[in-house]
Amino acid sequence: MNILAIEISTSSAKAMLYSPEDGIKAVESIAFPANSCDVMSQEPGDIYDLLKKCILSITERTQKIDAIGVCTTWHTILFLGQNHNPLGRIYTWAHNKASVIVENYRRDDGFKKWYYNKTGCMVNSTYPLWQYIYFRDTKSPMCNEKALISSQQAFIFEKLTGEFVMSKTTAAGSGFLNIKSLSWDKDILDFAGLKEEQLPALKEPTYSAPLKQEVASELNLPPGIPVVLGGADGAMNQIGDGAVKHGFMTFSVGTSGALRMVADQPILPNQPSTWCYYLIDDMWIAGAATSGAGNCVDWFIKKHSFGEVKLKHDDLGQKLHEVDRDDAPIFMPFLYGERCPGWRDDRRGAFYNLTGKHGLVDMYYAVLEGVLFNLYHCFRLLTRDIGKPSKVIISGGIEHSQEWLQMASDIFQTELAVSQVQHASLLGTAVLTLKAVGGIPSLAYHTPTPKRIIKPQEDLAELFHKRFEKYLEIYNKC
Q: Quick check: 307 pLDDT over 70?
């Protein structure tokens, strides 16, 4: 059986050919040009055309595709006219113009908790609800009383099948869905001034519809093959890494950072800090996401390279053993605002306790450590309510630095299983699609073996505990 998994990310279109017998057989990726995608927004027609190019590059090499699975980013909004044509661009989680409006609502603790307990989402500009409020309040011509509210996923699925639907998994990250009833929340819709018929019909991520004849002809595919609705990248990543078992945590450190664990009920702490979204089959994902990770490291490298002198991660990493960790500066990794745990768009990055004796390697060390302290802060809050993980699977750009991986294990004082899965969200989409069409009995069928295990150095536990306490002291003051 051949599965075609397709994905629209923040910056590219992707396609993967997968079979349970042979594994990953081919992967294609096309970066979006700047005029089609500026990270904050995307031109719908352009990204669909590039996705079709990705698909064609796969279908031209194989005679048989049995099913298609769809994956997109989690928090997007697109306005459609009554004829279902886009009224503007797709706006992603990075579109933060709603932050000023959101701040007024976030100051109201009663409202914040009411909204959080309904949706599992924070009052934050990341979420499509608050982007809708921004466009409504600024009287955007896209946002009229008859406009339909779509998303990356609903748009792509409708293009392929003609059906206007969204998976409950993706909808859980919209801010409109009731996290317990898994239906569009009437109170939230009333608050926004929307009617349920303006939003897509809700379906399970395993829902499928037949591929349209005209699209099949364009893409060199059999008409009528099932197109599985799928879910958002973070959820598909959880499946791809084989972490749908209770007690398994995924720990991603790429451009941004994330921690995720599966639960059999919504996890909603009394003090809103972490998020909770629906996954599949009476499973939810509780997690935390940070805005600053590899992007902070890249910022440091770029800003401290002059002329022909280019700093390199590997060169700096090899000198980390020279750093006096007890006396190193403390870095607050909020160059791009804060998501978890404080959800403050106005929080800023900074070095603290920096003196004239500190050099580039000390500062580089502080950046690596500060990113992990932000994630460890989230880890402590998340595990307080869901329990400590029995297994932590780490992935992302951090894998390229043995020093940073070891630092993560030492700070968290836990073993880290380094994922060997490439393209985890695409692979998770393929596995979900297999389940949807009866190719495998359950998602737990997929159990990838880690590349290696990183073990913590217990003798550094006290050092990092003291360093983290300093970090928290600064965090609570700024």
A: no
